[in-house]
């Protein structure tokens, strides 16, 4: 299998017309590929019409499967951009053809687990051989009031449907813009809302993963004593809002006014030994994006915490975020050794962007410079990130997921 025929090509462009942006990015990738394309992974800013964007891509690439969706911004070796007018894609030639591309519609938030089960079972039935599965769904369920699709229900159902099929699961909940108003998925054929797509990545590819957080515990353990889906009602038998306001030494009214979103507040559940030294990889963190002052509730982005879960307040600390990215990027490159990377994928929480977090430094810089100089790199800003934590795939918040793909033979 020759290097030139397996290396995917990156295309990127920015324009206020979706068709023009997509056509320009597709032409760039097509010229760089130098072979007949078989499928594409593509993302477009939320200010671009998704149907027109797909039309522009197909005007150059033909009727190949196009998977991806909306993105709050794009990340490549050239920089991190969040104007909403970006279009970027990775274009693949044979033999890097997915084992399967399957999609399902989410009828509603309560249907997410069943949707995942159906999709996982359908993927398992294809007998596709893959070491990595890419799962994409649109994050926004409704905007008034804001409701998100619950990724934990979907991912748990998907794992159940796979029924023990061994593959690394990564992915994202797509998001069109920082205001969390739109989200779209490209399912291989069209742009769809309330949809989820699963890709059995090409046989022979191996993914090397690292997860970065940048959250640090700033409290002792608290026990969730009352919860309704993503609403944390009580901690240690008291209203959650009261407990957290006390810990932060501010009034409940002040805390309630800070949301949505509370940029410096998350709840983290430590996995494994609760007394082990701190490590990013051992925490499942959940952003607090709203509060209900009347019920004293904290509203999270996910619903995977339960009565009895022991959580800590997590400080979203910019310097820790930057340090984590540098350390994990270096660690990933050490793991690669002499293996030749084919391409990189960086799934990054939109809240970690400079535009949203207020940092003076782009946290994706180590990924862009150290990975982007070795292989084509496509990253995008998402609403939710999906990756394994202690060998169990789950949706994540305030996270960067780095994946570098090599041919399995190159990694041995």
TrEMBL record:
Report the residue ranges that make up the FIST domain in this protein. 36-239
Q: List the SMART domains hit by this protein, alphabetically.
A: FIST, FIST_C
Domain FIST C-domain: start-end pairs? 240-389
- Pfam families per UniProt: FIST (PF08495), FIST_C (PF10442)
Q: Which InterPro entries did the record assign?
A: FIST_C, FIST_domain_N
Q: What is this protein called?
A: Uncharacterized protein
